[in-house]
Amino acid sequence: MLHCLIQAEGNLQGINQLVDCLAVIHHLRTNQRSVFDILSKTIVDWSDYGEDSGYKFANIHRAPVICLDSRGEVSRVNFSQPQRDSVFNVTIEEVEPWYEAMAEFTRLLHDPKYLLEFKLSPGEILTFDNIRLVHGRLGYEGERLLEGGYLDWDLVRSRIRVLRSELNKNHE
Question: Which domain of life is it from (predicted)?
């Protein structure tokens, strides 16, 4: 979730961008199978170190850009240039094809047919599935403040099950 507290002045300042990765991945799977295969099979190291509100973290994750479940369905997308680690544990023959595939994926993420652009106003909250959607923004000058927060899907689904159970008990 992104809560807009202060928005930059000017119509083209701080515009949010969302891309439906599942639509892009469907295109790759259907029309550019070699790109899809490379991005769904090549393991990439992802890392994120820092501190947020006094909480220190050191997250390390190894997974392809496109993660598939046991049925071959997309389960998540990993796409964050700042979090892609400098370690790339592949053979020399795999390096160039992977970067070419990643360049094509990135090109499609900027294709207007997959891209939604809009500007949040102060007080508005953007809630989205961070695994399905890739998000970014256009540049801005001046002041802009968005507070971000994350929900763990396991916790959300757990809470839904508990509430359904309690609701069913109250209607018996």
Answer: Eukaryota
Cα gap 27→1, rounded to integer Å: 27
The pTM for the full model equals: 0.80
Residues of the chain with pLDDT under 50: none
For the chain, the domain total comes to 1
> Angle between the 21-31 and 33-41 helix axes, to the nearest 10 degrees?
120
Which residues lie below 8 Å from residue 133, measured CB to CB, with a gap of 6+?
18, 19, 20, 21
| CATH number where 149 lies | 3.60.130.10
pLDDT number for residue 59 = 85
φ/ψ (deg, to 5) at 167: -65, -45
- Expressed as residue numbers, the domain containing 60 is 2-170
